[in-house]
Amino acid sequence: MPAEWMPGATRLDVGGHAPTDGGPAKAIGHITWDRNATPAAPQDLVPYENLQSWFGRNPSGIPSAPHILWDPFTGRITQFLPASSRSKSLADGPGGTRTNRAGSVVLQVEALFFPYCRVDGKVYARLIDTPCKGWPELLAWIRSWGVPDRWPMGRPVDFVSRRDEETWEEEAGWYAHAQVPENNHQDPGSWPAFTTEEAPDMDATQAKQLAELHKALVPYKGWDYRGNGKADAWALLNNLTTQVTAQTAAIKALAGQLGDDVDTATVVAAVEKAIADAVVKVSVDVTGPTNS
Ligand SMILES: [Zn+2]
């Protein structure tokens, strides 16, 4: 039996527990988005304690309390409702899905963050630019409730809404607030990777490519982010990056063994060019069929 209250989290029970409706296990990513800052006018992050009091003690805040408030800068976590209860951070219109209850669990996480927040003099544009402290522990607890490591509507990379009732009803995994039916919020804009190892997050080019793919692929039901045995574009790009790094290292090592007759730099440059050419071909393969 998984733990109703996340080990190590501060417990601030707001009461009013209520069962979920059953169905695919889900987790929802939010950011608190307390202030509207810009690159030209960043603003200081709101203190964690303010949000803790708002959701945990304020009569106006309790009705929208998530399960989890997560401070990605320090790793502090407060939990307001037990895992098997619904929490309250999603809008739920009359009829249709009961958003906050639409799963065996619907675990909602509010990351303490807004774009261009300032912490210790540094400005952060995206949640994934923060240290994401505490994420491995939080992810482990959410996994323990049967939420799979996948984004049925795609990992969030921007603040564009993409919602699909059918996917929501049928598919387990993580959803951005921007991907939940009957809602109009566009958060969280980005979210940390599922791996707890040293896999790099997407760089800016990869994120842009993925966003373009998503635009083309929303109506395409074959798309499955990190799906069952089918490699998607994100996986391909990351596998490719890993392979290129490994191959380059191997070639460098080999070239080193060949001795003084061989110009190591020339060999490495030739191999890197060959790999770069191959990368161009792979990205054509990925984008080609989806445009039809
Ligand atoms: Zn939200």
What are its keywords?
292 residues, alpha/beta, six-stranded mixed β-sheet, 9 strands
Mind explaining what this structure looks like?
The chain is an alpha/beta fold. The chain has two domains: 10-199, 3-Layer(aba) Sandwich (Lysozyme-like); 202-292, no CATH class. The chain contains six helices and nine strands. Strands 1-5-4-6-2-9 form a six-stranded mixed beta sheet, with no helix packed on it. β7 (117-119) and β8 form a beta hairpin. α5 (233-257) runs antiparallel to α6 (264-287). The longest helix has 25 residues, at 233-257. Mean pLDDT is 84; it is low at 219-231 and 283-292. The chain binds zinc ion. Residues 30, 89, 177, 185, 187 line the site of zinc ion (ZN). Residues 30, 89, 177, 185, 187 line the site of zinc ion.
What is this structure's SSE topology?
Elements: E1 10-11, E2 26-31, E3 43-44, H1 48-57, E4 68-70, E5 77-79, E6 106-111, E7 117-119, E8 122-124, H2 135-144, H3 165-170, E9 173-176, H4 204-217, H5 233-257, H6 264-287
Parallel strand pairs: 1-5, 2-6, 2-9, 3-7, 4-6
Antiparallel strand pairs: 4-5, 7-8
Helix pairs in contact: 5-6
Bound molecules: zinc ion.
Zinc ion binds next to loops.
Outline:
This protein has 292 residues and is an alpha/beta fold. It has two domains: 10-199, Lysozyme-like (3-Layer(aba) Sandwich), CATH 3.40.80.10; 202-292, no CATH class.
* Average pLDDT over all residues: 84
What is the percentage of strand-forming residues?
5-15%
CATH class of the largest domain: Alpha Beta
| Main β sheet profile | 6 strands, mixed
Unreliable stretches, pLDDT < 50, 5 or more residues? Answer: 219-231, 283-292
CATH topology of the largest domain: Lysozyme-like
Bound molecules: zinc ion
Largest beta sheet: what is the strand line-up? 1-5-4-6-2-9
How many domains?
A: 2
Tell me the total number of β-strands.
9
